[in-house]
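Changelog-linked ticket: MF3 example.
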Amino acid sequence: MIQYKTIDEIGKMRQAGRIVAACHREIGMRIKPGVTTLEIDRFVEGYMLKCGARPVQKGYKGYPYATCASVGEVVCHGFPQDAPLLEGELVTIDMVAELDGWMADSAWTYAVGRVDRETQRLMNATKFALYQGIKKAVAGNRIGDIGYAVQTVADGEKYAVVEAFIGHGIGRRLHEDPQVHHRGKAGTGKRLREGMVITIEPIFVRGYPDITIDADGWTARTFDGSWGAQYEHTVAVTSSGPLILTD
Ligand code: MF3
Ligand code: CO
């Protein structure tokens, strides 16, 4: 069942989103060769607690950290590591904050130092696809319009969409209805209405989108070693259009 939010509730989610956005800005300034993702994780946990927020991922279904830190061919749900990031790598940091009972979720891919042109192109296309999807988060449209907009970018740029991970409704709980697939048919699926709050979080890869999960039950890596990029915002459907809560 979709939980529609009032303007007031969206305002509260916006406050949670501001904390997540502030973490991402800090991370953007900190990521460089030699930094470890455990350091980043400790920073995020401390920052959220200092703000009076809860790092939702820690303890979620037994997940042990405040952030997911996915490097290279790990495309999702990687554990933060005590190993230095290396020049040229890609790392995706995913996090959720809860403030006064309301949540916001955002993931972002960072380049470690300088990355090659192909890797930069993968990042650009994935980020562009997120914003193309967000543009469709308008009352009256359908969920399939979002997936279609995302997949159109992937197809046009010859990337594959990792379909094992999808966006979701979010509010008092991390995963609410509806599901938000990153491939879809325009004009199909649930109708978008004012008060819906969803995440859009496409993962693109250069090679095959099939993944395997490590023995830890979380770490998702591509079968063929292709690197992934992922960009995620929490977005509210409002009378004045899509409202990004996590920037
Ligand atoms: N932010 C992720 C999401 O989109 C949460 C990953 S699961 C967790 O749903 F265990 F890491 F929290
Ligand atoms: Co999410």
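Closing comment: Example verified and attached. Helices lie at 7-30, 37-50, 117-135, 143-157. The first strand starts at residue 54 and ends at 55.
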